Amino acid sequence: MHLTPQQVAQFERDGYLVFLGLFSRAEVAVLRAETERLSRIDADTVVRERTGGVRSIFRVHEDDGATRSAAFRALVRTPRVLQPVRQALATDEVYVYHTKINTKPAIEGTVWMWHQDYGSWQRDGCPRPDMATFAVMMTDSVEMNGALYVIPGSHKRGRIEPYFDDSTSYKFWAVPKERMIEVLKASPPPVPLTGPAGSAALFHCNLLHASGHNLSAEDRWHIYISFNACANAPAFGPHTRPDWVVSRNTRPLQIQSDASSSAGILSAAEATFSSR
């Protein structure tokens, strides 16, 4: 899947793109089955809410580790994911910085405060914001179940110095309240990224985004595939965050053919990641 010139211009202007119905029901069913399996694993890469429900599952795209998954490994190499990312980052040499499934359990799924991904990634040592995230919705995403909100064009503000938010089960760097109020008052209204299961979104690493509680009766499952330009990889040292947050595998990904990208999931279900 190639982005049109209009989509490239929209990404540069707004900092995000939405692709409704990008993946089929059969494809989503495979990913959901894998998410259910991974949710039962006890490992550092599975972060749970204080109530016990799963909040996030990391590092699902590699071929080793407790949370490895052939289906998700195939997903990151499909033309529908990798080609738009290459275009958005203006390079064919990109790698997965990390993968993260956010499950937002019904009722108890908690917030992700307003933040920029590059707020953390610059601290990891990535010199430039040549980074983006491709999110795939594995369930219907609506405002009621904690949809992701973005502020259009906010990536053009550059990186805002964050603070360390330890109010939730997964601690991370968020934008200070006073600064965030200033930005909200001076910006277009936040936009919820909603759509049926199988929809996807691509967004810039400096785009301000957040999500609220899941107040619905159904879990909300998204996978976030964060990409970095290979030339922008950080220097690794003793204080670098774990591999499941900051991947040490910086080799450029190759876009796979339909058959190759489907091989990892064919034994699990009759589904393919076909090129569109």
Summarize the structure.
This protein is an alpha+beta fold and 276 residues long. The chain has helices at 5-14, 25-39, 70-75, 79-89, 117-121, 177-186, 258-262; strands at residues 16-19, 46-48, 54-58, 94-102, 112-115, 131-137, 148-150, 163-165, 172-174, 191-193, 200-204, 209-211, 222-229.
Please write out the topology.
Blueprint: H1 5-14, E1 16-19, H2 25-39, E2 46-48, E3 54-58, H3 70-75, H4 79-89, E4 94-102, E5 112-115, H5 117-121, E6 131-137, E7 148-150, E8 163-165, E9 172-174, H6 177-186, E10 191-193, E11 200-204, E12 209-211, E13 222-229, H7 258-262
Antiparallel strand pairs: 1-11, 2-3, 3-4, 4-13, 5-12, 6-11, 6-13, 7-10, 7-12, 8-9
Structure characterization notes:
The chain is α+β, with helices and mostly antiparallel strands. The protein has helices at residues 5-14, 25-39, 70-75, 79-89, 117-121, 177-186, 258-262; strands at residues 16-19, 46-48, 54-58, 94-102, 112-115, 131-137, 148-150, 163-165, 172-174, 191-193, 200-204, 209-211, 222-229. The chain has a seven-stranded antiparallel beta sheet with strand order 1-11-6-13-4-3-2. A four-stranded antiparallel beta sheet has the order 5-12-7-10, with no helix packed on it. A hairpin with a 6-residue loop joins strand 8 and strand 9. It is globular and about 45 Å long.
